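Worked Example 4.2. Consider the chain below.
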Amino acid sequence: MNRKLRGLYAVTPDTADSDALISGVQSALRGGAILVQYRNKVLDAAGRLRQARLILDACRAARVPLIVNDDVELAASIGADGVHLGRSDGSIPAARTRLGAGSIIGASCYNEFELAVAAARDGADYVAFGSFFPSSTKPEAVAASLDLLTQAKRTFDLPVVAIGGITHDNAPALIAAGADMLAVITALFNAKDVCVAAQQFSQLFPSYHARQKQSAV
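Applying the procedure from the previous section yields the following structure tokens:
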């Protein structure tokens, strides 16, 4: 696992429109997303499988890892790079056994530092906290404080992810507090130009500018 992952973590919106979804993912990748998570809570299993395969193709073309939200079996069936687990989605060791030693396994820790401690102990590759701001995707989500990011950054040798209501305006405070990645749904995929929105988020990270310089050589 690359513990230096730093930048925009694009999380897909709930939609049955696969053409629009793939177009949005491709635009986010062009804009600099360093990780993509496939998340869909509205489609049936067949629909999710179809979309996940299409997104995997886009991620492979961009050489960016694809993470599947909540569903270890879906991740295994398409050969995704990893899975993101919530509180009730199974254990990290079991997911590692199913997906392989090199898989990326992230854990939702909500607003509970103790969950991050347990996730790190179990071998998580990153820990995610949120919601930091009101979220239209999860309006009922618990509120998380910026202090959690700072504490996690000081404690773990793992990438720390912030999620929940993130916009270009409030993102700098999260990065300053210790977020290595910003997991963004609405402000990215609902943007008028997804590629530009992705660039705006990506440009907040010094690592983005380093990659741009390397690609120009």
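The mean pLDDT is 94. The two ends are 26 Å apart (CA to CA). Compare this with Example 4.1 before moving on.
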